[in-house]
Amino acid sequence: MGALCCRPQPVDFDGDINLFHFVLLRCVGKGAFGKVRVVQHKQSRELYALKYINKTKCVKMRAVSNVIQERRLLEEIDHPFIVNLRYAFQDDENCFFVLDLMLGGDLRFHLERLGSMSEDAVRFYVAQISSGLDYLHENNIMHRDLKPDNILLDERGNAHLTDFNIAVHFGERRLTGVAGSMAYMAPEILNKRGYTYYIDWWSLGVCAYELIFGRRPFRGRSNSDLTYSITKDPLKWPEDADKKCSRAGIQVLKGLLERDTSRRLCCKSDGFQEFKRHPWFKPIDWDSLENKEQVSPFVPDGKKANFDASHELEELLLEDNPLKARARKANQDNLSAEMRQMEEQFTSYDFKKMQRRSYYPHNQHLVSTVTATSSGVASSRPGTPGNDFRALDGGIAVTGDSVDLNCIDSDNYPPEQPTMLEKEYS
Question: How much of the chain exceeds pLDDT 70, in percent?
Fold first, then answer.
């Protein structure tokens, strides 16, 4: 009798997607109000990354609109170098994103262990991420939070862009809201004079510089110092820059880190095509690159965990409400306004049954496509050194559509890097 009570219920794979469809495996990441773990679909046996966000914490942090925005944006996009959405659903406690699984870790993880990366590897990553950015911009989406933490590698070393929590659609009207990670923000954001998708190319330049030289191009001990450095300081280079980066590579970095957006690389009407023709990318065959046929100069060690293993230990020892599949409650009448909003607007998605679509009028032409078979996840590392400014209504003072940076605690910044000999290139 007891054995009959404990027998697992059969899974209805023809019904709406839900957590019962997946086997829960190890925890690989943690965010402000959610976690990431590896899961396996019980029917297809495919591995994915499950990003789950606690609804109650989401409401307390006043991040409901951001979660819904991310969910909608991810349904629109599908590209070889983006961590793509495969399923979305919710239960009474959590909202779930099921994403391509990236087994190679994020670039912050590898940068911290290696100190810096080879020019060949960085050129490969810049080529792949620039392809993803161009795709987003063609669909009127700017990412706004490009940094090494949000670039994930698959098991073969291909780079993918993730974390669309503060990504937004853009049009002719420039945005003024301050959002993102300050160390990677373009000067036009900090000057509060309005900005558009050009900011993503600046952030890519900061990432590439940091990956090659092991430190960021602009630094400061406080918010105001960092703002001044990004907006005013000349771009300088380590004394041994010639040993780590070719002249062509330095030209690309300078072009991306150009404060004048009319001269910044990739910011003209045919800017990306011009970017692809730059001599630095001569070793790149762009067609085979997008088909993931090129061999990455850096392949993560598949025998090691390319993420912080403490997440798994924390889940085992400290989690008082571990994740498990639960049937939904029938009565949903007493929900708060925010909970009701998530219930109604965080809609289910199944990439095998549904066409991709846009929730925005100017992108209604989108149709379903299928790209990577193995691929991505929210970053497995803690936040980037340097403050992350999320365009939320809580946790950061918001006035209209801008964020008041004065409310950020500058003590959260890491200490200034040791002084290094620098030189300028004309």
Answer: 78
Residue 149: closest CA among 383, 408, 417: 383
Percent helix, strand, coil in the chain (nearest 5)?
35, 15, 50
**Structure tokens that stand for 313 in this block:** 């230990």
- The half-sphere exposure of 48 on its side-chain side, counting CA atoms within 13 A, is 27
Residue 128 CA to residue 120 CA, distance in Å, equals 13
- Residues 73-121: pLDDT tens digits? 999 999 999 999 999 999 999 999 999 999 999 999 999 999 999 999 9
Q: How many helices (H) and strands (E) does the chain have?
A: 14, 16
Distances (CA, A) of 365 to 1, 70, 148, 185, 346: 56, 19, 32, 31, 22
The residues assigned a catalytic role are 145
CA distances to 18, 111, 152, 175 from 172, rounded to whole Å, are 39, 37, 31, 9
Q: What is the enclosing helix (H) or strand (E) of 343?
A: helix 337-345
DSSP 315-334: HHHT-SS-----PPPS--TT
> Which residues lie below 8 Å from residue 269, measured CB to CB, with a gap of 6+?
none
CA angle at 148 for the pair 198 and 419, rounded to the nearest 5° = 95
- 423 vs 46, which has greater pLDDT? 46
Domains detected in the chain = 19-102+306-347 (3.30.200.20), 105-291 (1.10.510.10)
* pLDDT score, position 408: 33
Phi, psi (rounded to 5 degrees) for 398: -120, 130
**What pTM was estimated for this model as a whole?**
0.84
Residue type, 149: D
**Stronger pLDDT, 5 or 49, i.e. the higher one:** 49
254 among the known binding-site residues?
Answer: no
Please tell me which residue, 388 or 194, carries the higher pLDDT value. Answer: 194
pLDDT of residue 385: 42
Q: How far is the C-alpha of 16 from the C-alpha of 91, rounded, in Å?
A: 12
Unique residue bearing structure tokens 């949903």:
332
Helix axes 64-76, 337-345, angle to 10 degrees: 10
Q: Exposed/middle/buried for 233, CB within 10 Å: 0-12, 13-18, 19+? A: middle
CA distance 352 to 43: 13
